[in-house]
Amino acid sequence: MTGKLIAGNWKMNGSVSFATELVEGLLERLNQDAVSADFVVCPPAALLGTVLSLAKDTDLAVGGQDCHANVSGAHTGDTSAELLKDIGCGYVITGHSERRTDHGETNADVNAKSAAALTAGLTPIICIGETEAERVTGDTLNVIKTQVTESLPDDCDPDNIVLAYEPVWAIGTGKTATPADVADVHNFIRGLLNDRFGEDAAKKIRILYGGSVKPENAAELLAVSNVDGALVGGASLKVEDFWAIGVR
Ligand SMILES: O=C(CO)COP(=O)(O)O
């Protein structure tokens, strides 16, 4: 692990002109500022080619938003991790709560997709997080434990995985978990990773926080123990805001 990882999940937003303007804006800043954070953008699949051609040979990394667990085959509309790697991606988001909800993805599915990503040479950004109902009933840590246990592939290399804690109730709602809540969950996740991989290996795994991260709350959230970066939705669509989250 080096600096913080600031990942932008564009979700189903953008166009060729939007992507070009946003990526050019980021590259301009990457060239000018001394940056300790690593930046990655995850555009919709149809914009990957545009973004990759702009980001080629730069410090801006690019990721997909999902991949199929299989290498190839009759899976209309899906994209394999191999193909993402082949076109130049370095990362892929797996298990985002919107995919768990919209497409019924289970921890087992997320595990298989993350394993496929690792086999292809991509770093999966494996998403976990409790719903509002689970938080209210005090089940947050149990849910997190199950998700971490079941979503991480058996033989995964701690060098090549990223976790993202995104409380579902904080996504796109403007509600952010308090630094104390975030600390509780991130410290708990670190403990689970320590138990599984041993402390030396586990500390290589970056644990991102996601859910209504914006320039106004980024400093406070990124200062929390065991918060190694951010997975940013809405604010990653504005170059000034996305940049200000990682460079302060
Ligand atoms: O889901 C998210 C990133 O993956 C977070 O989205 P928002 O930053 O828009 O809340």
UniProtKB/TrEMBL annotation:
GO terms for molecular function: triose-phosphate isomerase activity. The active site is at H96, E166. One of its GO terms (cellular component) is cytosol. The keyword tRNA-binding does not apply. Pfam families: TIM. Keywords: Cytoplasm, Gluconeogenesis, Glycolysis, Isomerase. Pathway: Carbohydrate degradation; glycolysis; D-glyceraldehyde 3-phosphate from glycerone phosphate: step 1/1; Carbohydrate metabolism; erythritol degradation; Carbohydrate biosynthesis; gluconeogenesis. Its EC number is 5.3.1.1. It is found in: Cytoplasm. Its main location: cytoplasm. Substrate binds at N9, W10, K11, G172, S212, G233, G234. This is Triosephosphate isomerase. It comes from Kiloniella spongiae.
